[in-house]
Amino acid sequence: MSRSRIAAAAACAAVVATSVLIVTGSASAGTISGTLYRDPDTAVARWLSANPGDSRATVIRDKIASQPATRWLSNFNIATVGAEVAGYVTAAEAAGQIPALTVYGITNRDCGGASSGGAPDLTQYQTWIGNIARNLGTRTVVLNLEPDSIALLTCLNSSEIAARNQALRTATQTLKAANPNAKVYLDGGHSAWNSAGDQASRLVAAGIASADGFYTNASNFQPTSAEAAYGRSIISALNGQGATGKRQVIDVSRNGGASGDWCGDDNTDRRIGQYPTVNTGDANIDAYLWIKPPGEADGCRYAAGSFQPDLAYSLASTAPNPPSSPPPPSSPSTSPSSSPSSSPSPSSPAGSCGATLRATSTWNGGYQGEVTVRAGTVATSGWTVSWTLPAGSTIAQAWNGTLTSSGSTVTVRNVSWNGSVPAGGSTTFGFTASGTPGTPAVTCTSP
């Protein structure tokens, strides 16, 4: 197994989380606009559900499980992958957000290393890709196609490289033809691996002309500044080879600390990087993503793709808190109403806090809500907001607060970093729900 390769995640386990925080933004520069989808069905969510009293749980919940990481399609199963993709994409669209998938099933993936597997042959691979493509919907979806597949070719002979390049070209064209709004990115390696000129030539051979661009640093640790510079060099080289208009995606899931050797299982100097967003401020960069879900192993000390709480805690323990406010809800990948379907529902701040609920956007069968919590004449050291959902309404997910439900009664409590609100000050949390908003009465209490 090459020590210069990236380590890729294996399959994610399915589980529903009870507390989430979505922190992404509308695009500034780049070509993607909207909010990234935080998948509630992840390995970290299952661990949190099973270990609520663990001393590491608060940090892991607030700084990792709260964030949108990509869903890996790494179990090669032709019969079920279509349903998996359809369920994920439909859930993201219902939330008014952008799904991001990492497709990882190429034949002879990882050159037989810790994340080996994939399709038995390239014919079956294309069938698998076709089943993915048919379930992508029609709105924006981000697809990171086959980590390692272009930067790591040491185990392939010339004819096998040519066959892989053809497979990647065909896969890209299949995905784009099925959903013209799909954003497809190819493997760009990372800044401490192949030269930019070499990587650009490999990308051209693999069909980047049909793709939207390339991603770098997947499952690796190189600083964002180094990756952005590397990406600019690749783009320049691509332009020189006639592949113009391509943009970069950077995996920032683990690049906030030490770089160096490829494996993160044994290095306690790794840290999560910046939080995921499409608001990059760089015209060359479409998104900063968490391609590798933080806390999932590389295959050195633990099985590749398995969630390890000690790794997650090490990555997150000294990281800054996420931004406390959710992004604007509008996105070209959805068709929400631009006007709220209900007026604010206030509660009186006569006590130590008050709360106001409003619908910020609606779509067919659902809506997004925002609750503003205001302190009264004294500061709060914590807050709890409750209301009764209208008939037929259920909450799918919430952010900036811990959600519990009992029948139609919803209760949201502050998370660790937003319970203290100064006198006269405010904070917000948000949620997405099915049904219609209504105008429920909202109560707020504070110790």
UniProtKB/TrEMBL annotation:
Q: Which PROSITE patterns does this entry report, sorted A to Z?
A: CBM2, CBM2_A
Biased composition range(s): Low complexity: 332-349
Q: Is Signal set as a keyword in this record?
A: yes
Pfam annotation, one family: Glyco_hydro_6
- Signal peptide span: 1-29
Domain CBM2 spans what residues? 346-447
Query: Is Signal given among the entry's keywords?
Result: yes
Q: What class of enzyme is it?
A: hydrolase
**Domain of life of the source:** Bacteria
* Residue stretches of biased makeup (Pro residues): 320-331
Entry EC number(s): 3.2.1.-
What keywords were assigned to this record?
Carbohydrate metabolism, Cellulose degradation, Glycosidase, Hydrolase, Polysaccharide degradation, Signal
> Disordered: where is this region?
313-357
- Coiled-coil segments on the chain, per record: none
State the similarity comment.
Answer: Belongs to the glycosyl hydrolase family 6.
* Protein name, UniProt field: Glucanase
